[in-house]
């Protein structure tokens, strides 16, 4: 299969591209800079220059491909306005890509977050939240999945709060970055809230499996660790960086504060049982041991 990948040099995408190539697929990948194009070419993909906002380029990429994995997200989302703009940009891109596939029965796999459900781990059957700072992202994912009725094999892989590789990435990675800036490891609330996690290399396998075989209109959970306590995550970071660990107000984390403070474990039992996905790489707490002072 010739697969058009957006976001191919990010934490997830840089694992997805070689996973696809290793299993006999070819990859056409969106590249927003010369350095990204070189990295993609070095990995064995064919670069297509453009950005997620270049809708004509996205249409051209979709037209040349047998399937799509949509991972691109503007990295400038550290403020509330930036997050809103990034979600709007992603939504327009997904709408464009999805409409290009109408009536073709070709697959498109997009990414979203796992939902949170009070009192238990969320499952693949739980709906995405339509309130809160990422509600518009949920709406755009739901709109893409609805294209299943129009001849698009649209699917979503829901990612946990931390997608990690060698101690980098996700919400845990944001804690690390903040700790380096401030000289202390801050975590919101009491720290008993749980964050699910997955190694990027394990997530890449799931994206491939969903692309190859998942039914239209379905959602899957790329969850390896059902829920690590935030205080435990912060403790490992503090030990590796030799910095104090302290609770801080959720507002310290900007637009992500309300999400950071939530208890949000997630299950992937249905995904594992149905698609045969089996995470094999280190869990988050073990992988954080790769952080260098």
Describe the protein in words:
This protein is an alpha/beta fold. The protein has 2 domains: 2-160 and 198-225, Rossmann fold; 163-196 and 227-290, UDP-galactose 4-epimerase, domain 1. It has 11 helices and 12 strands. The protein has helices at residues 13-22, 34-43, 55-63, 80-100, 135-145, 170-182, 200-213, 230-241, 257-260, 269-275, 284-287, and strands at 2-6, 26-31, 46-49, 67-70, 107-113, 153-159, 162-164, 185-188, 194-199, 218-221, 225-229, 245-248. A 7-stranded parallel sheet has the order 3-2-1-4-5-6-10, sandwiched between helices. The protein has a 3-stranded mixed sheet with strand order 7-9-11. The model has no long low-confidence stretch (mean pLDDT 95).
Explain the layout of strands and helices:
Blueprint: E1 2-6, H1 13-22, E2 26-31, H2 34-43, E3 46-49, H3 55-63, E4 67-70, H4 80-100, E5 107-113, H5 135-145, E6 153-159, E7 162-164, H6 170-182, E8 185-188, E9 194-199, H7 200-213, E10 218-221, E11 225-229, H8 230-241, E12 245-248, H9 257-260, H10 269-275, H11 284-287
Parallel strand pairs: 1-2, 1-4, 2-3, 4-5, 5-6, 6-10, 7-9, 8-12
Antiparallel strand pairs: 9-11
């Amino acid at each position: 299969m010739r697969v058009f990948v957006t976001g191919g040099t990010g934490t997830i995408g840089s694992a997805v591209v070689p996973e696809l190539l290793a299993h006999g697929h070819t990859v056409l990948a969106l590249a927003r800079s010369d350095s990204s194009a070189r990295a993609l070419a070095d990995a064995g993909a064919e670069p297509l220059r453009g950005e997620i906002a270049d809708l004509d380029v996205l249409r051209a990429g979709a037209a040349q491909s047998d399937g799509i994995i949509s991972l691109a997200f503007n990295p400038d989302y550290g403020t509330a306005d930036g997050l809103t703009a990034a979600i709007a940009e992603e939504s327009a891109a997904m709408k464009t890509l999805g409409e290009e596939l109408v009536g073709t029965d070709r697959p498109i796999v997009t990414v979203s977050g796992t939902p949170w459900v009070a009192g238990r781990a969320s499952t693949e059957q739980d709906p995405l939240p339509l309130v809160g700072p990422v509600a518009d992202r949920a709406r755009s994912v739901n709109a893409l999945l609805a294209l299943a009725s129009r001849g698009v094999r649209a699917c979503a892989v829901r990612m946990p709060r931390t997608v990690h590789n060698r101690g980098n990435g996700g919400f845990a990675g944001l804690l690390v970055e903040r700790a380096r800036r401030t000289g202390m490891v801050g975590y919101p609330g009491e720290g008993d809230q749980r964050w699910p996690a997955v190694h990027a290399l394990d997530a890449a396998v799931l994206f491939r499996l969903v692309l190859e075989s998942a039914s239209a209109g379905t959602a899957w959970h790329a969850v390896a660790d059902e829920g690590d306590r935030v205080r435990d995550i912060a403790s490992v970071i503090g030990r590796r960086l030799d910095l104090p660990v302290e609770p801080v107000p959720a507002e310290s984390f900007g637009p992500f504060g309300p999400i950071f403070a939530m208890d949000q474990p997630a299950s992937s039992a249905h995904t594992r049982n149905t698609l045969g996905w089996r995470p094999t790489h280190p869990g988050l707490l073990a992988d954080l041991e790769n952080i260098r002072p």
